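Appendix B: complex inputs.
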Amino acid sequence: MLLGPNRYGKAEIRVVRITRDADVHHIKDCDVGVALSGDMAAVHLTGDNAAVLPTDSQKNTVFAFARKHGIAEIEEFALLLARHFVDSLPSVHRARVAVEEYLWDRIPAGDGADGAGAGRTGADGTRASGTGHSFVRSGRETRTCVVHYDGPSERATVVSGLTGLTVLNSTGSEFHGFAEDEYTTLRPTRDRVLATEVRASWRHRAEHDGFGASYARARGALLAAFAGTHSLSLQQTLYAMGCRVLEECGELCEIRLSLPNRHHFTVDLEPFGLDNANEVFFAADRPYGLIEGAVLADDAPDAGFAWE
Amino acid sequence: MLLGPNRYGKAEIRVVRITRDADVHHIKDCDVGVALSGDMAAVHLTGDNAAVLPTDSQKNTVFAFARKHGIAEIEEFALLLARHFVDSLPSVHRARVAVEEYLWDRIPAGDGADGAGAGRTGADGTRASGTGHSFVRSGRETRTCVVHYDGPSERATVVSGLTGLTVLNSTGSEFHGFAEDEYTTLRPTRDRVLATEVRASWRHRAEHDGFGASYARARGALLAAFAGTHSLSLQQTLYAMGCRVLEECGELCEIRLSLPNRHHFTVDLEPFGLDNANEVFFAADRPYGLIEGAVLADDAPDAGFAWE
Amino acid sequence: MLLGPNRYGKAEIRVVRITRDADVHHIKDCDVGVALSGDMAAVHLTGDNAAVLPTDSQKNTVFAFARKHGIAEIEEFALLLARHFVDSLPSVHRARVAVEEYLWDRIPAGDGADGAGAGRTGADGTRASGTGHSFVRSGRETRTCVVHYDGPSERATVVSGLTGLTVLNSTGSEFHGFAEDEYTTLRPTRDRVLATEVRASWRHRAEHDGFGASYARARGALLAAFAGTHSLSLQQTLYAMGCRVLEECGELCEIRLSLPNRHHFTVDLEPFGLDNANEVFFAADRPYGLIEGAVLADDAPDAGFAWE
Amino acid sequence: MLLGPNRYGKAEIRVVRITRDADVHHIKDCDVGVALSGDMAAVHLTGDNAAVLPTDSQKNTVFAFARKHGIAEIEEFALLLARHFVDSLPSVHRARVAVEEYLWDRIPAGDGADGAGAGRTGADGTRASGTGHSFVRSGRETRTCVVHYDGPSERATVVSGLTGLTVLNSTGSEFHGFAEDEYTTLRPTRDRVLATEVRASWRHRAEHDGFGASYARARGALLAAFAGTHSLSLQQTLYAMGCRVLEECGELCEIRLSLPNRHHFTVDLEPFGLDNANEVFFAADRPYGLIEGAVLADDAPDAGFAWE
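Resulting structure:
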């Protein structure tokens, strides 16, 4: 028997960092996962733990680093951690650090009664304007990153992204001219609802100091391309979204998208003497279409282990 | 053996209603549940279905009503449905209709790149300003209502509410002076994080024509009271939130709140030579405190079956 | 403003109790929730915590009681806790303790390769026969109880139950002769799949010392009645299940059932030149029928606060 | 911009197949996902769907194949489907078909009151003995497979597995001798609870006609190795489990395991004057350790695209 690829670490470390700027507080709310690999044959074969830093110590490190270094952008925090584990432990050759960030708005100081969450945060999680220490969870998407640092090659890779960005076009979507076989009963349509929950990850060409602005640009490009594309298929929309992100974000070289096609079926109301010109839909859960694809810049460097 | 209280119906009917206002579309995205009760002894005792309108017909009714009447406010839609079932079926004496509404923002027509979801919707689900047919799911809370209509008494009750409104104060919360017994090890604190995920339901005095504005006022009052209360206990905050809602919403007479105390524990960093003046927290999942309570207006009428 | 009904406590305390019987271990794996009520006006109105035992102390009590008293049956454990809180704290007039129990089988000592989980546990969570300290989670259902103890009346109530018991009859179910209205398109059927996920709670007449055997009898009666009833409607099946439990369990006086009708639709395969005599089904998630009802013994005593 | 790797298909097709063997019915309850790839540049770049078989047709195919061919073992069903899509559509070069199977026991014909689910099924989903048409969902694990078929190379790969197999050793687990750094506070232990929820996938050397028996052997080997290994670390247990599966299943050549370390912390009861010799534990949710690793047979052939 041979031991194959392996890694270990602590998952789902829920760390919340409050920064007190006089009376104005800032919040970063994260879920961190660490996975280390290297000289780990002995622990698998004999249970010798000499090369194994406990996952409990990894957890402690995340909390201590949040105190010492703060969490400016999740990519920076992940890079600090990944380098630390590789550089301080000879048995660890590579570290993978993944972070999810949950976003918060400020509750307006004066009056929350507009119901509109004024004072909404940008991609940095909190906003400089406004006052106070009261927050409300915002948005439905989660900002993500996955960072690798490899000791022998001294190479780091950074992938950022998001999950849970749910979008819908109520028109401007068609589907026809498709292949048909003996099991095809679907009828072509010139007008349908197109809805999806975007899961996207994009690879940075290199480390840089604008991860927050980069996230805002990429998110905005995804929304703009989804809204602005007259769609003949969800694949076309996926490709348009990927291209738009790379066009607007020169710091990125590749993007991967996973788009479930959340079907909205037009309900047949004829039995009740009613027409239904794309006004009433049944939103189905399962099954759903699933469209996955990648777009790369023409000069994208080799990804290495970035996507592992 | 005796047959006790019973009801039946269709649950989780996912209906999406698009309204086309020239080039500007509006969306209402709902989950509807129907429960009917009445002369149902025979079906239980012998399987005689003569009194039973199929749950499939109830589902059809929801879709047909969405086409015929639109969905202006979920409370109005629920009232229409509840009255319909009771009035059209002699065997049905009472109907309960519950609706959850999922909220959407418009994707800005010009440029989505600000990352800030400009054009956010108010409590009516969509905003008159802005253009287009592209939407992004907004907020984390779900707007809810539960409506009852009783045939014999011709009485309707309306309870509105929300779930999933997650809020946090990073200071301004204390907990001390509590009872202690032989199992008490908790130490009093003068400064802690207070976080909760609000589940609230409020009872209307009567039907009215301002359910949308009422929701916005109540939501705003919850946020304002949470943010504005210097808290000595989560119970105090709960009561302040309930009072604020009733004070600002004369159309309401009762509110019930369920507030999980989402503990944020200050991490002990002393072993690593670091202080931690409420800057780094571990956000725990379980167990959690759970605080439940109601506030009533002095002149609240009898609730009847409103909370069933 | 008036403070209405309220309670507070610690929810989702995950306690695992291992009992070492020489080389044979026994496991009880529970989730405990405590809710206390009484003289709690001050904490709501002014934040005065003098009457408030911290939820942290409640959690400690659960762990300490698991050590001191063990967890024989979850109902007994809940009763011990409920009485303790009421009897030791003057401000607490009533305690509600809810327990969920997760069930485990033993992994057979000799050989796990039969794939069949021999050595399965009965209702007591573990089995006396067999050896060892290795377990595998079994079944999909969760055993539950909710206990109340009221100080002023010195009355205790015990409700036991289960959730997540998923059952299916592949024939022996009909649905026809139902009421029809203008929105009815469903066609009657003489043979359909009937599937549901049973949520049931049953009320004991009094405390007794056979909660484990009672649970096994009630669970068995539910299964036997579901399997043994030729069904003309899910309501009929519900009533049969309730009656069977009460008939076989004289210690019980009331049962409440909630049965989602998990629709299995016969797929139309005619377009592909295939018949489908109830052989291939699409298992739908939403919407679903929801049938709720109670059955009581003729001489059932008043429930009091048992169902709160 | 370049289009990178892509695929599309229908996910989460919930198909239930009933086979009527005179009065004895058999059930296969599956969730099927299809993903196709090939000449798909046009649909991405221009929205030309000529190469795209609708995901709706894929869904229809799954239901029609369930009728025509039955579902003997999920691997066989997946292979039939994968070959069909590649062989019948020139634009499709490769198909990936993933199946999850949910397991059912028979409800005993005579009497369900033993609470023990006699008549439990083996790996084939149902048991030949016993009678009737009544079933109860069994076990907590889900049986899985992922099959690929590649047209140009005419090569198929088969990976089987399971998720959700939750196991626990209440003793026989140690953890000491580990690496320590400045963030290490964990103390070594000679006796701890070891609990995990096994996610495992194993690769077959080739297609064969014993997938059902193979699954039972692999599942049994996982349980036997978990129970039979005195563990010095979860990595050691992982490797032992992997080796045991490959030793007992000559038809397999590789296994990949993902084992979350579900921490059970011994509760400190000293403040209450109680000892706690590994009797009372707090079962934590998050964070958790996560141990991932692969074991390969010495002569394992190249995996190709099996794990994609």
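The two ends of chain D are 24 Å apart (CA to CA).
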